[in-house]
Amino acid sequence: MSESANSFKKYAIIVAGGSGSRMKSDLPKQFIEIGGIPILLHTLKKFREADPSIELLLVLPESQIDFWEELCRKHADFSQNLAHQVIQGGATRFQSSLNGLNMIQGEGLVAIHDGVRPFVSTEVILRSFKTASETGTAVVSVASKDSVRISGKAVDRSTVRIIQTPQTFLLSTIKKAFQNPELPTFTDDASVAEAAGFEIHLIDGDYENIKITTPEDLLWAEVLLKKR
């Protein structure tokens, strides 16, 4: 596969289905503000900045859609250039990703990204699209900084990668993978593609591309925001 990423239509499916339980908040974590702006708007902006041609699709639980639209109106100055399609999510991550994929017709490249990773860099986003255009898959990862044990047994840390998002695919590849039944072993979209027989190509990510799920993550997020 040798086509340039620029020859493909590009999409980003932003999946945001959190409840806020681990954040110890009544407000779903994707709506919590950092720097006075909801996390999810920061995430959408990252993809718009990376490439204005990317079509943005946001997958949310049905019960959260009205509240999200209110937030967009409240932060109209920030969100005015972040046009996106809102899609009702499913009961699981698999079903939510599938709902997003079903809204896309034709060939192209799609990046599937956690809504609560607002610090993904432009470089990582563009690298993921480029690699997926060449190989069919591109999954962002970083090396483990810590020693690792599996069931009490030490493993070679150099062989361990911590998986992040975006996870980017040729649309025909990931749509074919999602035709298979959902399994409990599907922890992310890459695991769905791998189970369908597709090779997963890892690309270097960024340690600042954190997933905000706990109060400690929120503190770190405020620090990262001040750096930018």
From TrEMBL:
<keyword id="KW-0808">Transferase</keyword>
<feature type="site" description="Positions MEP for the nucleophilic attack">
    <location>
        <position position="211"/>
    </location>
</feature>
<comment type="function">
    <text>Catalyzes the formation of 4-diphosphocytidyl-2-C-methyl-D-erythritol from CTP and 2-C-methyl-D-erythritol 4-phosphate (MEP).</text>
</comment>
<dbReference type="InterPro" id="IPR034683">
    <property type="entry name" value="IspD/TarI"/>
</dbReference>
<dbReference type="Pfam" id="PF01128">
    <property type="entry name" value="IspD"/>
</dbReference>
<feature type="site" description="Transition state stabilizer">
    <location>
        <position position="22"/>
    </location>
</feature>
<feature type="site" description="Transition state stabilizer">
    <location>
        <position position="29"/>
    </location>
</feature>
<feature type="site" description="Positions MEP for the nucleophilic attack">
    <location>
        <position position="157"/>
    </location>
</feature>
<protein>
    <recommendedName>
        <fullName>2-C-methyl-D-erythritol 4-phosphate cytidylyltransferase</fullName>
        <ecNumber>2.7.7.60</ecNumber>
    </recommendedName>
</protein>
<keyword id="KW-0548">Nucleotidyltransferase</keyword>
<dbReference type="GO" id="GO:0050518">
    <property type="term" value="F:2-C-methyl-D-erythritol 4-phosphate cytidylyltransferase activity"/>
</dbReference>
<comment type="pathway">
    <text>Isoprenoid biosynthesis; isopentenyl diphosphate biosynthesis via DXP pathway; isopentenyl diphosphate from 1-deoxy-D-xylulose 5-phosphate: step 2/6.</text>
</comment>
<dbReference type="InterPro" id="IPR001228">
    <property type="entry name" value="IspD"/>
</dbReference>
<comment type="similarity">
    <text>Belongs to the IspD/TarI cytidylyltransferase family. IspD subfamily.</text>
</comment>
<dbReference type="InterPro" id="IPR050088">
    <property type="entry name" value="IspD/TarI_cytidylyltransf_bact"/>
</dbReference>
<dbReference type="InterPro" id="IPR029044">
    <property type="entry name" value="Nucleotide-diphossugar_trans"/>
</dbReference>
<dbReference type="GO" id="GO:0019288">
    <property type="term" value="P:isopentenyl diphosphate biosynthetic process, methylerythritol 4-phosphate pathway"/>
</dbReference>
<keyword id="KW-0414">Isoprene biosynthesis</keyword>
